[in-house]
Design goal:
Length: about 70
């Protein structure tokens, strides 16, 4: 990839991560403060979300390793 493409992708990714992180922060804050939702449901949802995030991160890392090996 060209250096400008890498820089643009890095800036875009950083911005997207900041916005997604802030949105999750606000959503989780409201979600955890809601006393009408049972604690077991809250922990179950948190577990599912964390599991999906971990799987996505591992797939991205694997994809990056595979693309580096092909070059």
């Amino acid at each position: 990839m060209k250096p400008l493409n890498v820089i643009g992708l890095a800036i875009f990714s950083a911005g997207a991560l900041i916005l997604a992180g802030f949105g999750l922060y606000k959503l989780v804050g409201v979600f955890l403060k809601d006393s009408t939702i049972p604690a077991i449901i809250k922990w179950g949802i948190v577990g599912v979300v964390l599991g999906v995030v971990i799987i996505l991160i591992s797939l991205i890392v694997e994809r990056i390793k595979d693309s580096n090996e092909e070059e």
